[in-house]
Amino acid sequence: MKLQALASKPQLMKITIEDEDIVEKYGEPLEFWVKDRQDMDTFFKLANLEGGVGMENIASVVKDLVLDEKGNPILQGEVALPVDVMLKVIEVTVTRLGNSVTQTSTA
Description:
By secondary structure, the protein is α+β, with helices and mostly antiparallel strands. The chain has helices at 20-26, 40-47, 55-65, 83-103, and strands at residues 12-17, 30-35.
């Protein structure tokens, strides 16, 4: 397989949080988008999150990944999410991006 067959422009990937507690508290599932492929800088930031890294570091990396449907960052400046929502956003984002890596792998 030629390497160029795997190369493509990052696409927006919709993520829906349908956690029972979140839906009950906020009245409906929550949606946001992330890019299905990340640049190497972001990849290394995510890779360095393993092994005792504080939650503030995880939140700062994920903050840059959370986008609206047009690809614009949602969490800019002083804008913040409720803690329960941010924890769920972190969880599903890291899980989804981790699963995306295996989707392009043939091993």
